[in-house]
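Input structure tokens:
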């Protein structure tokens, strides 16, 4: 049972509801796991919505890996981010992104593959291809930043080379595989 120390701010009714939710969600956790979660909450100060996401994601990862939430919380990358400098909201964002990466390893591998493919296109500084968040939606954003007609022609030529080589089709194929 984690209790009130995990709840900061807000009204007493909301705090009681959050505490009840946390107690129910962590009832079968060890004391060590509760302390680890308490540290995350103390350091990152997540909102109730973020805390619910964190608990959901910890449960998902532990279930998938046939492990315990404490093992997930002990991940060196997550621990390193808890000790990082910066504001609590910024650290929370980075910590949740690292937790998301643990939760979706195939998506992370697909993102890395797409990023490598984009880098391999050698589009130069004038053209940029941006992947959609979490590779959802199937749409790429292509941005051209040019200062002259010649620079535009060069950027379009590089994009055309990647298109003809099949690189852009492979990139869309990666988006379609999810």
């Amino acid at each position: 049972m984690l209790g009130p120390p995990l709840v900061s701010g807000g009204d007493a009714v909301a705090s009681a509801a959050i505490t009840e939710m946390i107690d129910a969600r962590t009832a079968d956790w060890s004391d060590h796991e509760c302390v680890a979660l308490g540290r995350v909450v103390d350091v990152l100060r997540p909102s109730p919505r973020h805390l619910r996401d964190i608990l959901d994601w910890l449960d998902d990862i532990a279930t998938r890996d046939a492990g315990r939430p404490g093992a997930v919380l002990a991940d060196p990358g997550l621990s390193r981010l808890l000790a990082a400098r910066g504001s609590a909201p910024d650290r929370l964002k980075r910590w949740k992104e690292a937790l998301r990466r643990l939760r979706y390893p195939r998506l992370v591998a697909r993102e890395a593959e797409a990023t490598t493919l984009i880098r391999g296109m050698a589009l130069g500084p004038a053209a940029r291809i941006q992947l959609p968040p979490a590779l959802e939606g199937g749409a790429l954003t292509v941005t051209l930043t040019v200062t002259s007609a010649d620079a535009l022609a060069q950027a379009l030529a590089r994009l055309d080379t990647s298109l003809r080589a099949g690189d852009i089709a492979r990139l869309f194929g990666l988006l379609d595989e999810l």
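The longest helix spans residues 48-64. Residues 106-176 form one domain.
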